Automatic annotation (TrEMBL):
Pfam families: Drf_FH3, Drf_GBD, FH2. Residues 536-969 form the FH2 domain. This is FH2 domain-containing protein. Residues 504-518 have a biased composition (Pro residues). Residues 476-503 have a biased composition (Low complexity).
Length: 1022
């Protein structure tokens, strides 16, 4: 025991492990080290020096007494050793340095490129607080170091990329809590524990684990720590975005992490804190408070999470699960024993009827029974729907607080937890707002669905309106003297035809067309002629179109001598609320007139039955599906094609689909024949009508291809330019990186040493392809180690600055995905697409020029011949509103300039890439960036993986070491653990005991011996 204390005393003044040869640890334990009596100082001086030495150790009184009982020679040797250690560590950074550093980070937070240096400096702070003397910690606290740490940690939560700074800060808090003064100041600080608890919001798993470990250890350290942790978790709940306290803990327990091992560590830390909250402090002394905390966690679904995670993790986490569930069973049994249920049946704490029965039996023949009945009576008046759920939540909050006040009021003031004061109006307002938000969110989703349906209906109606306009134009044209073109585009409206140059149309002498048939007439269309003489009933007209009752109407000749004769149904309307009836059974399109609705339905049915399709059935079906996804009318598609879709209505992927449905000459012939036969394009099916419309656009196929080129050009350039820039950046970084050159020199030296006396030895250099052969040289000592692990060890020990090399060469990973042949092929294709655009532009310009020349010649002939006939083109090949020439000309002007810049950038890439290749003696005619930089990318990935393996191994060794220390501290503990205000336990060992479950081992063994059933089964307690 003394040797352990002695070693700790020596380690307190040196960050490195003590030299065993200096302190005599290697000597046999029965040897007593002595000094010459003449070399000893005066007794008073020795006592004073040794007293100062013991004070620096910050030990418990019993351990201090063990040191005071040592002989004077031993005391003097420890004092002398202390002075020697102080001399060796004189270069250690002072408290002033770290406080100034924290103040600087508080005022100006480190930028991204300064973060590695900041992490290193803050790691130094954690080491200093953990290993330096007690006076060092006192001085650090006196200078305001704790307040600076709190401020910097709060700033780390402002942005998600500052987690790396928060980790060494949390480790510094953890190191500070190893000191009794540090714990005292930390718990007395109003913001310290709140700031640490708020770090639960950090996404970094290691930060979360350290935070949970600190909170767990403080809970079991003292009653004050337990109370302060609960208060801190309550105060930071709004900062964490929790609807209820402890929601973050349950979420972290449920959420998986990037790896299985990381998930298990976080979940174990969460369960440590949950069990510490339930097993220490106020919870240890109060069953009611313990039940209250557990019910809070159960309401958040912690039991469901535990059930899902059962048998999927290690034994430590399973032990924590067992402890939580069996403590719950024990508490419910104890609670049930205090409740007289009035029967021998057990009380089920999850059954409302069972608990109500037990509560009735408890309050029977008491003055509280009338109030309980009144409470139930008023609760019956409140509905249980979603609209009133906030009222039930308020009842829950009030009962929780009142029960706690009654329970904790019977205890001493120092054990009473901080209770939340509830403002009734504010609580109701917040709960109601939350419910309204959930309702609005649900209504928004429904409205979006309805909006999508309405958009589809609008497109369908626009197509129908277009068909009706075509029909109207055809009818008007039949009365005119000029021939009609059934394939006109765009289709003129009825209003526009009245103002056109067509001769006036005389109205028919027979009067206007008859009105559409009424609803009653339509019902009788299938009956006999005698049925038309049925007298009209006095049925009130509804204010909107209503749903149809699909009954079979009896003819009038069958009504006589039946129940329907003189039935008196018209008198019933006086007793009906017709508005309510209409509201409850209104149809989907309630704003249409009944006659119009039925007439429109008949028109659509007749049209759907007479649609004509002349193209292939499969092609027609696929084209119709494509048009339904496009969600544009034929007129909008035509306008978009003429304007080269300058408004971007047609998506890029739909242009690719439209290229598959370009009408052929045979299809156009069949479509025109169908239009001539039926005198209207309205008889064509959707796909046929679409092909007819787009087939009349001049050079539709070439125009569509040009549009596809223009829409995909930017995307192709945006893919090429970053790839080119990545190769340029990688070439520059690899060629000029001094750290890479130094690493290559290390590999070359090691390789020549390994190949000494061999044919491949005495090398002046090696091919870069050989970098990936380094990991293939296996270690003779361990089968899971290779030469890469050894090189990493050398670099970490002798050349630590080389570890930053990978951050400086991140560009090679992007360059490793770039293939030079593919880039050159893509460049040629982009150039070819620009040539296609230029060629089509010349064709369109030539067509326009020919039409202008032809029109000019016709005008001259008209002037010479004095012919009154209007000049006409033989075959007009352009259309009004065609913007092809204007838009394509402007696009080519910009794109050609952009392409020239990309060509220059590509030439620069080739120049720098081949210079880099030659620099590494890897020159070859077919060398490509993906091959060359892929070698370095693979090497750096292997380097990182091997380094991570070494790091994991060190971490595992440290964990096992801590677990062993924890077992040695808590193996001989007897009885229930007693908390003390000023605990003499080592904080780090306490955390290790919590993580491994050693601190709860005795309680767990006792509970397991009491409960033999599976903890996953539901237990009904007596």
């Amino acid at each position: 025991m003394f040797e352990e204390l002695f070693e700790r005393a020596l380690n307190c003044f040196n960050k490195m492990a003590p030299d065993k040869s200096e302190i005599g640890i290697s000597e046999p334990k029965n040897v007593v080290l002595t000094l010459d009596a003449s070399a000893l100082p005066d007794r008073k001086q020795l006592d004073k020096a040794f007293r100062d030495f013991v004070t620096e150790l910050d030990l418990s009184p019993d351990k201090q007494q063990m040191l005071y009982n040592q002989p004077e020679e031993k005391k003097w040797m420890m004092v002398m050793e202390q002075n020697m250690r102080k001399d060796k560590t004189a270069s250690t950074e002072s408290c002033e340095y770290f406080v100034d550093l924290l103040q600087r980070y508080d005022s100006t937070f480190p930028e991204t490129y300064d973060i590695p240096k900041a992490i290193q400096q803050l790691d130094g702070l954690a080491i200093s607080l953990r290993t330096n003397s007690h006076s060092y910690v006192q001085k650090f606290l006196h200078l305001g170091g704790l307040e600076r740490m709190i401020s910097v940690l709060d700033r780390c939560r402002e942005r998600s990329d500052r987690d790396h700074i928060a980790l060494p800060l949390l480790n510094s808090f953890r190191a500070l809590l190893n000191s009794s003064d540090g714990r005292s100041v930390f718990l007395d600080s109003p913001k310290a524990l709140q700031s640490v608890a708020a770090a639960l919001d950090l996404q970094n798993s290691r930060c979360k684990i350290v935070t949970l470990e600190i909170l767990s250890a403080l809970c079991v350290l003292s009653d004050q720590g337990h109370t302060e942790v609960i208060r801190a978790l309550s105060e930071v709940s709004p900062l964490l975005g929790e609807r209820r306290r402890f929601q973050k803990l349950v979420d972290d327990l449920h959420r998986p992490r990037s790896s299985e091992r990381e998930s298990e560590r976080v979940r174990t830390a969460v369960m440590c804190l949950i069990n510490a909250l339930l097993k220490s402090g106020v919870s240890e002394h109060s069953l009611e408070f313990r039940l209250h905390l557990r019910y809070e966690l159960l309401m958040l679904g912690v039991q469901d999470v535990i059930d899902r995670l059962r048998d999927s993790h290690g034994s430590a986490l399973q032990d924590h699960f067992d402890l939580f569930e069996m403590m719950r069973q024990e508490d419910e049994m104890e609670m049930s024993s205090s409740v007289d249920s009035g029967s021998s049946s057990p009380v089920d704490f999850e059954n409302p009827a069972g608990m109500a029965e037990a509560l009735t039996a408890k309050l029977n023949n008491t003055v509280a029974l009338p109030h309980f009945i009144s409470l139930l009576q008023h609760m019956l008046m409140i509905p249980g729907d979603e609209k009133h759920v906030h009222m039930w939540r308020l009842f829950d909050m009030l009962i929780q607080q009142l029960s706690l006040q009654v329970t904790m009021g019977q205890m001493s003031a120092d054990m009473e937890p901080s209770l939340v004061k509830i403002d009734i109006q504010q609580a109701l307002s917040r709960l109601r707002t939350q419910h309204e938000y959930e309702q609005l969110e649900k209504e928004l989703a429904e409205t979006n669905d309805e909006l999508e349906l309405e958009r589809k209906r609008v497109i369908e109606l626009e197509n129908r309106v277009s068909d009706l306009q075509d029909d109207a134009f055809s009818r008007i044209s039949d009365f005119s003297s000029s021939p009609s073109d059934p394939c006109h585009s765009p289709t003129p409206t009825i209003l526009s035809t009245s103002t056109s140059s067509l001769p006036p149309v005389k109205p028919p002498t027979s009067g206007p067309p008859p009105p559409p048939p009424s609803a009653a007439q339509l019902k009788l269309l299938g009956g006999s002629i005698s049925s038309l003489n049925v007298p009209q009933k006095n049925v009130p007209k509804p204010s909107a179109t209503l749903r149809t009752l699909n009954w079979s109407v009896l003819p009038a000749n069958k009504i006589s001598s039946t129940v329907w004769e003189k039935i008196g149904d018209e008198k019933v309307y006086k007793n009906l609320d017709l508005e309510d009836l209409a509201t409850n059974f209104v149809a989907g399109k309630g704003h249409q007139d009944d006659n119009e609705s039925i007439y429109g339905t008949l028109q659509r049915k007749m049209r759907s039955d007479t649609l004509v399709s002349v193209i292939d059935a499969q092609r027609s079906q696929n084209c119709t599906i494509m048009l339904s996804k496009l969600k544009l009318t034929n007129r909008e598609i035509r306008t978009a094609m003429l304007t080269m879709d300058e408004k971007g209505k047609i998506p890029k992927d739909m242009i690719e689909q439209m290229l598959k449905y370009v009408p052929s000459r045979e299809e156009m012939t069949l479509l025109k024949e169908a239009v001539e036969k039926y005198k209207s394009p309205a008889v064509l099916a959707i796909a046929d009508r679409f092909l007819l419309e787009v087939g009349q656009i001049p050079r539709y196929e070439q125009r569509l291809k040009c549009l596809h080129i223009m829409r995909t050009y930017k995307e192709r350039v945006d893919e090429l330019v970053p790839c080119i820039n990545a190769v340029i950046k990688a070439s520059n970084s690899v060629s000029s990186n001094k750290k890479l050159k130094q690493l290559l020199s290390i590999i070359l030296a090691i390789g020549n040493f390994l190949n000494y006396g061999k044919k491949s030895g005495n090398a002046s250099g090696f091919a870069v392809t050989s970098l990936n052969a380094v990991a293939g040289v296996k270690s003779a000592m361990r089968c899971d180690r290779n030469l890469m692990h050894y090189i990493i060890g050398v670099v970490e020990e002798k050349y630590p600055e080389l570890l930053r090399m990978q951050r400086e060469m991140t560009g090679i990973f992007d360059a490793a995905r770039c293939s030079r042949p593919e880039m050159e092929q893509e460049m040629r294709q982009v150039e070819a697409s620009l040539r296609v655009l230029s060629a089509e532009l010349r064709v369109q310009e030539k067509i326009l020029e020919e039409e202008e020349q032809e029109l000019k010649e016709n005008i001259e002939n008209l002037e010479n011949n004095n012919n009154a006939e209007e000049p006409r083109l033989k075959r007009r090949r352009t259309v009004k509103g065609d913007k092809f020439i204007k838009i394509v000309r402007a696009f080519l002007a910009d794109s050609k300039t952009q392409y020239k810049e990309m060509e220059a950038l590509h030439a620069e890439m080739n120049s720098k890439f081949f210079a880099c290749v030659r620099y590494f003696a890897a020159d070859g005619p077919g060398c490509s960036p993906d091959d060359f930089f892929g070698i370095f990318a693979k090497f750096l990935n292997t380097f990182s993986e091997c380094r991570q393996q070494l790091w994991d191994e060190k971490e595992e060794i440290e964990r096992v070491k801590k677990q062993t220390l924890a077992r040695s501290v808590f193996a001989k503990r007897g009885g229930r653990r007693r908390q003390q205000k000023n605990s003499d336990q080592d904080f780090e060992k306490l955390i290790s005991a919590l993580q491994s479950g050693e601190i709860f081992s005795e309680d767990l063994c006792r509970l397991r011996s009491s409960f033999r059933v599976s903890p996953r089964k539901k237990i009904l307690v007596q």
